[in-house]
């Protein structure tokens, strides 16, 4: 019994021992990640990553074969390069020869082979870091810089050309994290400028063979840059002086051009101008007058009204006098412009004077709108428009033949394109209103020279200008007014006169207005003003200033004439005239209009020459509707 | 090679293995048409050979990026390169013992040996069953250009170095113009040729750079 138990016990012990020996033991894992590097193309080292050791002591062996030979060698040196490495000395290192390397892990349970790798020493060169890195701070005229120098790693034989190394330097401030890298090529020195005064720099260098891997960075070399602040201060002084100089120049320039600058920055706000509203009238407080001025009985203007308007604004003189007129016109215009310029309206800025903007803006649109809007007396909107319209019309009137009319919409351009009257549009607008003495000559010029017969002063012009009207309108008024009568321009007193004058001039506007108000009334209907009264039926637009005297005589004679409203003045020489069939409706058109009509009737002679007008005719219809004719456009009469 | 009317014959370069310290002297005189100094010529030549080797390295990497792994098992070993017959130094000591003329001769022989294979590679690259064949083809063409101009430069250089430098070993390429019929064979052959080219271009580059440093007495900072 005891023996059986001992046997069993022994058997169990044996089993236990056997088990104990087998647990956790296994063949080793496969070594992996074999990598080799050569620092100088004369020796190389290979490292591997061991697998699991299987719980048993495992040994590793590296075997290699060279190309072209089946002979297997084992690593000669496992120790020099540390653990899990193999160092190949010069004797066993050959270049331009493929090595086939395998690592074998062995333990008592078995062995494991790694995957073989093929290497060629010349392709795995990774040099050591450069050595003897020296960093000096060199003072150079108070601008210090760093002088960095180094030596190639000891083992690398660059002197014979066996290895060609390229270097790279990097530096950073001690307390910063960003490195700045500088390439140094094959040189062994480097200068670094633009240092921070008083800063401490860390400098590192590394190298790389021509076909290989970068080395590790050399250990940091620290250096402190001395302070050199004074230099910067002088630079700041220079900058301040230069800036001050620039500032002085700038101020001087602004001072020299103060007014133009001021005008550019703070453009004058055009005062509100209501066509047909006479400021003096308002001031006088006569409500009846005011209201009556606001109310335009004839608005919307009928065809006849249009004609009237047209006539008032533009009287295209029949060719026979054309040349004369044109010549005169230019001169007159110039004079008129000049005079008008001088009398710029001063209220509410320069808006009235600088009415070219008004004119340009309003030109086209207003024409359309003018008639409808203003005539009803909606001055609010029409004010500006009417102003512009008036201006434009006036200009048209004045510019007569020189109308280049692009068309209403392009007043601005047209105005400018007009050689004669309208080119100096702003001037024109500016001057008249405030002219204390409306230069009769000038105004007359403007009215009469080009297209206007002496009698055909547009009603507008008769308005007492300067005091009440702003710029343009007043100019017109003055123009016309003076032209006819040398009345002082006073809204109130002149109103009647204006009316008369208008009548004389055959100013339909006055008639339209039906009010004693003078030109201002007309202003109420900006479109009307601008409108060119009907001009000659076919293609003649007669614009002529109608002298008061003449107008009277004419007023009734030509009422039945066809009026075509000058729609727009072509660029070249076309005056767009709206053909009005209802010439007969002219009826009460002022003699002025009739003059125009008469002129218009004469236009057939002109028609041939007035090519522009022909083309303009269809447009004139539109114009008639709108009641506005851009003088610019209108005046684009051909210069026949 | 005698453009200069006056030229001092350079000191000879005996190809004795023990004369590794023989100085590399080249005296040149400025003639009516100034000649480029030899070290400058060597500098240019080594730059071109460097470029050639970089291109061939890029080519092998580009091939490997899409090369099917199974194909590599059959890659021939580099010992089978058509230029393996040429005896070249195998370590630094050997290399530094070679004379300048021999180094130049070796470089020129290797360069000449690759003129035909590059043409074969160029024509095969156009129809290579590889996704990057256009890039590979352009690089091979660039290699051909560099090879041509480097060959011309080395001809001039060898003319200044004596007759032994002008000897070229003949290393014919016997691989034929056709790389194979099936895709795997073609790619394998292509890869094999590229690996041979990579090594040979590195040899040429190394030899020229050794020569450059030997001639750089006036510019020791480069070496």
TrEMBL record, chain A:
Residues 331-389, 429-449 are annotated as: Disordered. It is found in: Membrane. It comes from the Eukaryota. The keyword Transmembrane helix applies. Residues 27-128, 129-228 form the Fibronectin type-III domain. Keywords: Disulfide bond, Glycoprotein, Membrane, Metal-binding, Receptor, Repeat, Signal, Transmembrane, Transmembrane helix, Zinc. This is Prolactin receptor. It comes from Poecilia mexicana.
TrEMBL record, chain B:
GO terms for biological process: positive regulation of cell population proliferation; positive regulation of receptor signaling pathway via JAK-STAT; response to nutrient levels. Pfam families: Hormone_1. It comes from the Eukaryota. Keywords: Disulfide bond, Hormone, Secreted, Signal. One of its GO terms (cellular component) is extracellular space. InterPro entries: 4_helix_cytokine-like_core, Somatotropin/Prolactin, Somatotropin_CS. GO terms for molecular function: hormone activity. PANTHER family: PROLACTIN, SOMATOTROPIN,PROLACTIN. This is Prolactin. It comes from Poecilia mexicana.
